[in-house]
Amino acid sequence: MRVYVDQDLCISCGLCIDTAPAVFQWNDDEKAEAVEEEVPSHVEEDAREALENCPTDAIKEMER
Ligand code: SF4
């Protein structure tokens, strides 16, 4: 699974970082970003939960 955060949609609510701290982090613009594009398999479930719960659908899964 590969993810990124659409910076125009992120409202900095922090939910994804609470849900999946190994996958998402704050960037210098105080928006969320993926720590790494490629999500490590052991935290993929957390990443997917964060993706599904993002209030603005800012978290996108990249096509393979
Ligand atoms: S859950 Fe969505 S809106 Fe909230 S910080 Fe994460 S990417 Fe941004």
TrEMBL record:
Q: Which UniProt keywords apply?
A: Electron transport, Iron, Iron-sulfur, Metal-binding, Transport
| An example Gene Ontology molecular-function term | electron transfer activity
Q: Does the keyword Nucleotide-binding apply?
A: no
Residue limits of the 4Fe-4S ferredoxin-type domain? 1-29
Keyword Transmembrane helix, does the record have it?
Answer: no
* Origin: domain of life: Bacteria
Say what the protein does.
Ferredoxins are iron-sulfur proteins that transfer electrons in a wide variety of metabolic reactions.
Instruction: Cite the PANTHER family for this sequence.
Output: FERREDOXIN
The protein, known as: Ferredoxin
- The species is Koleobacter methoxysyntrophicus
Q: What is the lineage of its organism?
A: Bacteria, Bacillati, Bacillota, Clostridia, Koleobacterales
